Amino acid sequence: MNPATPTPTIGSRWTNSVGSLIFLSRWLQAPLYLGLIVAQLLYVFQFMGELWHLAEHVVTDPRKAEQAVVMLGVLGLIDVVMIANLLIMVIIGGYETFVSKLNLEDSRDRPEWLSHVNSNVLKTKLAMSIIGISSIHLLKTFIEVNDLGAEEVENLTGEVYSEAGVLWQVAIHTIFILSALGLAWIDRWHNKDAARSRRLMIKERKLGIFHAGPDAGAREIAELEAAVGGPELVDSSPRS
C-alpha cells in the first residue's frame, strides 16, 4: 500500500507562491534589453552619419584631407562599432544568463562565444571590450595632442589638452587593464577549482567511495587528490 501524499500546508503553498513570483521577476529585465536594442539602432544612425561626413570630406577636397584627419574619422567609426559589440554582448549574453535560454543550439548563426557564456565569462568579455574602447579614445588623444596646455589650439579637433588630462586618461586605461586581469584570474581560479571537483567526483564514482559524514573518507579523498595530480595529502597516521 502506497503512503498517502501529504497535503501541502498553507505555509508551504505561500512559500511556493512567493518563490514562483520571485522567479518570474526575472522577466522585468526584458524591457531593459529591448531598450538596449533601441540604443544600438541609434548607434547605427550615428555610424552612418559619421561615415557620410568622412566620405564627404575626403571626396569634396582630397588635398585637404590629411592622413591624420582620415585616421581620426576611422577611429571614430571603430569606436562606434566596438560600443555596438559591447551592446550585443550585454543584450544576448545577459538575456541568456539572467532571463531565459534562447534555444539556438541548432542555429547556424549562433555566435561561438555564446556556447560557453556565463556570468564570469560575460564580465571578462565586457571588461575586454571596455579596454578596447578606452584604447581607441587614448589613441585619438595621442594623435590629436600637439602642444599641451597651449592657448592657441592647433590640433585637429580644436580641443585643448593638458598634461594632467592625458595622464589621467593613461591612468584610467591602466586601471581598466588591471581590472580585466583581475576578473580573468578569478574566472581561471574558479574554473580550475570546478574542474578539480569534477575530477574528484568522477574518481570517487569509479572507486565506489561514499562518505557518511564530514570526517569519513578523509584518507580516500587525499588519495584521490594525489591520483588526479593534486597535492600529496595522504595521512598514514592512525585515526583516534
Automatic annotation (TrEMBL):
It is a multi-pass membrane protein. The chain crosses the membrane at residues 30-48, 69-95, 166-186. It is found in: Cell membrane. Pfam families: UPF0114 (PF03350). Keywords: Cell membrane, Membrane, Transmembrane, Transmembrane helix. It comes from the Bacteria. One of its GO terms (cellular component) is plasma membrane. Belongs to the UPF0114 family. NCBIfam families: HI0507. PANTHER family: UPF0114 PROTEIN YQHA. This is UPF0114 protein SAMN04489834_0485.
